[in-house]
Specification:
single chain; alpha+beta; 4-stranded mixed sheet; 3 helices
Length: 113
């Protein structure tokens, strides 16, 4: 089996995982997903909070095991949850507005790859 490096699969996995978990204890309803985009070897996620503060998270695009079921280690969904969403939300929930300075575009990057 060829490894799946499809940026589309990763973008879809992040969006799908966000949609499933949004409004739960994992992703508070006050956070809104603005965009998910693959830019070369980096996947970027932008969200905003209830005060319109914008936060960005960047993660290295992995090589995925095409044979894994959704949610299993090696799948796009597993990566989206454990390498993007969980660490991103943890950072936002720990006073990111005060801990991270907004860049010229008004985005507070809580992770840089």
């Amino acid at each position: 089996m060829e490894p799946d490096t499809s940026d589309d699969a990763l973008v879809r996995a992040v969006r799908s995982t966000w949609d499933t978990a949004h409004g739960t204890a994992l992703i508070p309803a006050r956070l809104q997903l603005l965009s998910v985009a693959a830019r070369g070897a980096v996947l970027e996620v932008l969200v905003s909070d209830e005060n319109a503060a914008r936060f960005g998270f960047a993660a290295q695009v992995p090589v995925l095991d095409d044979g894994e079921d959704d949610g299993e280690p090696g799948s796009a969904e597993h990566w989206a949850l454990w390498q993007v969403i969980v660490p991103f939300i943890e950072e936002i929930e720990t006073d990111a507005v005060r801990r991270y300075t907004a860049n010229a575009a008004g985005v507070r990057w809580v992770s840089a790859t």
